[in-house]
Structure formats: structure tokens, C-alpha cells
Design a protein that fits this description.
The N and C termini lie far apart (96 Å). Helix 4 packs parallel to helix 6 and helix 9 runs antiparallel to helix 11. The strands form three sheets. Strands 1, 2, 3, 4 and 6 form a five-stranded antiparallel sheet that branches. Strands 5-10-9-7 form a four-stranded mixed sheet, with helices on one face. The longest helix is centred in the C-terminal third of the chain and has 51 residues. The chain is of the alpha+beta class and 504 residues long. The radius of gyration is 31 Å and the shape is globular. It folds into three domains: 132 residues, no CATH class; 191 residues, no CATH class; 46 residues. Belongs to the protein kinase superfamily. ADCK protein kinase family. This is Ubiquinone biosynthesis regulatory protein kinase UbiB. Keywords: ATP-binding, Cell inner membrane, Cell membrane, Kinase, Membrane, Nucleotide-binding, Transferase, Transmembrane, Transmembrane helix, Ubiquinone, Ubiquinone biosynthesis.
């Protein structure tokens, strides 16, 4: 079966001219020389990015998802290809109702008709990994049920194995291929798919995001019904709203699109900088707008996280960026360990200045925050910056948010909208506010530790006393050992002397 699948991949690649893309990029390599002898030169009306996108669509949903993930790796791919891959849509035909009911029967140990008062057999959404049905609980609560596609684990394992084989060949046969780190990209993709195939993990992501935005006037997150969730089934509150891509329908409903675009920016930066936990798949298909104008988030399979080190890195960079202190931006990268310690700060500073300085001479509404961040990452990559997956996800999400915001409001000034929030957040991260916050965070531990200090001090003194005693005993043993060696030597000399006397 793997051989048949590999044959199809080769056939599709030739049909869409992917071999020509390899020829273009491997002209002076062994692979290029071999392909030139084997394959004729052909021309195509479509761009290389469009041909690659169509090839992935022909290969099926797992390759579509792989293309979507590749579109986020703009630190590795040419921008024309990344932009084209971003157009991939993860839409596949739904799987049969009988299979849906079989999954639910296996999960609950009884028929779906006994679990739910009402269950819609017609799916409302279908993707490569799962599909969604509407239902009602026995008490009449309306829910959405996400059911994992049967047999998807084997399909994914099979296709990922083929991708890994291709990645190894690229690294072995194409010198430039090693720079693209194809095996690392496939590994990253595999980890994302593993997360998406566990519905309990997605449910926990949703629950965490809902808790973070409890009482928020900006964002609604569905409630999880944990008693009905399992590894293959997720049951959550059914949400009402219009897809955010339906601009005219939103306008007809009286939604303030400018306010909606600003709210989207605030939601994003709140997730990133306040919580360090953000929705990393914010394309229009995953966002509704409620009748009251609030955002509604859906699909929580891919989330991004930032630790304190990441947030501190971002704080230092943004603070220095506002002040046009490019040397500090360069130093922040080196201090974080993301570019080698031997990097010359002045050279790195000059490269960053070339990226950032031009935007300050343009009207703010013409500045693309996402693309500026992207160019910074690309510049850092030239200086051997290690790829940070969490920052790549952040950059991809920021580009999505910015594109969505400008779709709602073409005059959206993302920089001006974000700047007050970022300045307020940075004042909390750097300076006396940060000190007060850290003291508050540490206070519970101190309160628990203070009453134990006398006992801990007594134990430490005892331990120190025991340590001194052991050290003294060790010194005595060393002294005795040295004396014993001297005595042994003396005895040996005496024995030799006696033996000499006896012989004489």
C-alpha cells in the first residue's frame, strides 16, 4: 500500500511540475543533474506556488494540512509559496452517518439515541481529522459534537512516514535541503496532528481559554460538557453567530466593523501578553460574530504558549523598538540565546535597523505589523537564529489577525491600536510594577516558608556541624593513612637492614 501511495505522490508531482521546481533550485547539484537527464524541461502557465497548492489538494487532506502548516514557516519558505499555501482549505467530504454513530456507541457504550435527546445526522462541518454535528442533551441543552474521523490515525501515520522519507531524501541529495530542515518540519507537523487527534486535549484548551476570558465583553468561548467528552468525541456548547467572513451580512446586522477590528487586536494581545496562551489557528472559518457583536472562538486543536522568558524577550524587543534602540533589540536576541553568542552586536544591529527604520517614515496605517515581525525573524535567521516554534506560531497568528482586521476595516492602524496596550503591558513587565507583581506572586510561598525557618536553620546548622565532624574524621583518617604508610615504609627499611646484618 505504501508503494501505491508513493507512486501516486510521484505521479501528482510530475503532473503539477514539482520536478521543475526542484530543477530550478538544484541546478548545480547531483539531484539537478540527475533530473535533467531523466526529465524534459517544461513550462507552466500557473505560478510555482499555485502548482504546489493544487498538488497538495490532489494528494488529500493530510497533505493539505501539511501545506497549511508549511505556510506558517515563512522563515524557511519563499513568500510567494507561503502566501499561496495559506489559501489551502481543509474541507473534505463527510464520513458516513453509520460510522459517526459507531464511534459514539464505542465511546459511550450505548446508542447515541440514549445519550442525546436529539442528534442531527447531517454534519455542519467536515475536515480531515473530524466533523461536527449538532445535538441536544437530555435536558434540552443545545450542543455541538466533534467526532474524530474513523481510521484517521492509520492514514496519518502512513502519510507522515512518507513525508519523513521524502524529507530524508531531500537532506541526503540536496545540499540546500539541509538548511530547510525538512525532517524537523515533518516532526513539528506530526506533533500538531497528534494534538488534534486527542479530543480531550482540545477540550482542555477550550476550557482554559474560556476561563481566561470569563466575563469578557469581547470574546465568547463555548462551555465544555466534560461528562460527554472522550478521546474521540468532544461535546461543547452550541454557539450562535455569523461567520466573520460574511462582511455584508454583519453590516446588515448592524455590527460596528471598525470596533470589531479593534476588539480583535485587543483579544489577540490579551491572549499573548496577559495569558501567554493564545489561539494559534485564527482563520475566518474558526471565528463567528455573535448577535451582540462579540467574537466567538471555535476549534481549539492548535494553541500557542509563551513562557516568562518568551514574554520577557518580547517586552525587551517592543520597548527597544518603540525607542528605536536597535542595539537593544539585537542584544535581546543574543541574551535570549536565540542567536549565537559570537554574533557581532553591531552587525546584527545594522541589519535590524535596515528592517525597522523605513517604517517610521511612513504613515502608521501603511505599516504591516505582522510583516515587520516576519522580516525581523528572517533577518535573525541570516544570523543563525534558532527557529522558535512558539514565535513562528505567534507570527502566523499575528498575520492572520492583521489580515482579518484590515478586511473588516481597510483603514485599521494595527500599530496605533496595539501600542497603548503594549505600553501598558510593558510597564507591568519592566520596572516597579513588575517588582510589586512578583512580590505578590511569591508572597504565598514566603508565608508558607517563614514559619519553617527556625527548624530549617536548626537543621542546616546540624547538617553543617555533621559536615564539619565528617570532614574532621576524614582528615584524621587521611592523617592515619599517611602515618600508616610511613610506618610501613619504616618497617620495610628495618627489615632490609636486618636482612643485611643477618647476611653479613
Amino acid at each position: 500500500m505504501r508503494l501505491l501511495r508513493l507512486t501516486k505522490i510521484v505521479s501528482v508531482s510530475l503532473r503539477f511540475g514539482l520536478d521543475q521546481m526542484i530543477l530550478d533550485h538544484a541546478a548545480n547539484t547531483r539531484v539537478g543533474e540527475w533530473l535533467r537527464r531523466l526529465l524534459p524541461r517544461r513550462s507552466f502557465a500557473e505560478s510555482r506556488g499555485a502548482r504546489l497548492r493544487r498538488a497538495l489538494e490532489s494528494l488529500g487532506p493530510i497533505f493539505v494540512k501539511f501545506g497549511q502548516m508549511l505556510s506558517t514557516r515563512r522563515d524557511l519558505l519563499p513568500l510567494d509559496i507561503a502566501d499561496e499555501l495559506a489559501l489551502l482549505q481543509d474541507r473534505v467530504p463527510p464520513f458516513p452517518t453509520e460510522q459517526v454513530l459507531a464511534v459514539l456507541q464505542t465511546e459511550y457504550g450505548r446508542p447515541a439515541t440514549e445519550v442525546f435527546r436529539n442528534f442531527s445526522l447531517t454534519p455542519v462541518a467536515s475536515a480531515s481529522v473530524a466533523q461536527v454535528h449538532f445535538a441536544e442533551l437530555q435536558d434540552g441543552t443545545e450542543v455541538a459534537i466533534k467526532v474524530l474521523r474513523p481510521g484517521i490515525e492509520a492514514v496519518i501515520a502512513h502519510d507522515v512516514a512518507l513525508m519523513d522519507t521524502a524529507a530524508r531524501l531531500i537532506e541526503a541529495l540536496w545540499r540546500e535541503g539541509r538548511r530547510l530542515k525538512p525532517r524537523e518540519v515533518v516532526d513539528e507537523f506530526s506533533r500538531h496532528l497528534e494534538d488534534e487527534m486527542d479530543m480531550t486535549r482540545e477540550a482542555s484548551n477550550c476550557s482554559q481559554l474560556r476561563r481566561n476570558f470569563t466575563g469578557s465583553p469581547l470574546l465568547q468561548v463555548p462551555e465544555i460538557h466534560w461528562d460527554y467528552c472522550g478521546r474521540r468525541v468532544l461535546v461543547m456548547q452550541r454557539m450562535a453567530g455569523l461567520p466573520i467572513s460574511q462582511i455584508e451580512a454583519l453590516r446588515a446586522q448592524g455590527v460596528d466593523l471598525k470596533a470589531l477590528s479593534r476588539a480583535g487586536v485587543e483579544i489577540f494581545f490579551t491572549q499573548v501578553f496577559r495569558d501567554g496562551f493564545f489561539h494559534a489557528d485564527m482563520h475566518p472559518g474558526n471565528i463567528l460574530v455573535a448577535p451582540n457583536g462579540q467574537y466567538v472562538a471555535l476549534d481549539f486543536g492548535i494553541m500557542g504558549t509563551l513562557n516568562d522568558r518568551d514574554k520577557n524577550y518580547l517586552a525587551q524587543n517592543f520597548l527597544a523598538f518603540f525607542r528605536r534602540d536597535y542595539k537593544r533589540v539585537a542584544q535581546a536576541h543574543i541574551d535570549a540565546g536565540w542567536v549565537p553568542a559570537h554574533t557581532r552586536v553591531d552587525e546584527f544591529e545594522s541589519a535590524i535597523r535596515a528592517v525597522c527604520e523605513p517604517i517610521f517614515d511612513r504613515p502608521l496605517k501603511e505599516i504591516s505589523f505582522g510583516k515587520t515581525l516576519l522580516r525581523l525573524f528572517q533577518t535573525a535567521h541570516r544570523f543563525e537564529m534558532e527557529v522558535q516554534p512558539q514565535l513562528v506560531m505567534l507570527q502566523k497568528t499575528l498575520l492572520n489577525i492583521e489580515g482579518l482586521g484590515r478586511q473588516l476595516d481597510p483603514d485599521l492602524d494595527l500599530w496605533q491600536t496595539a501600542k497603548p496596550f503594549l505600553e501598558r503591558w510593558m510597564s507591568e513587565q519592566v520596572g516597579w510594577r513588575a517588582l510589586v507583581r512578583h512580590l505578590k506572586d511569591e508572597a504565598p510561598d514566603w508565608a508558607a516558608t517563614l514559619p519553617q525557618l527556625p527548624r530549617l536553620l536548626h537543621r542546616a546548622l546540624n547538617d553543617e556541624s555533621k559536615a564539619r565532624e565528617l570532614a574532621h574524621q576524614a582528615a584524621l583518617l587521611q592523617l592515619l593513612e599517611r602515618r600508616n604508610r610511613w610506618l610501613a615504609t619504616l618497617c620495610a627499611l628495618l627489615a632490609l637492614a636486618l636482612a643485611g646484618i643477618w647476611l653479613h
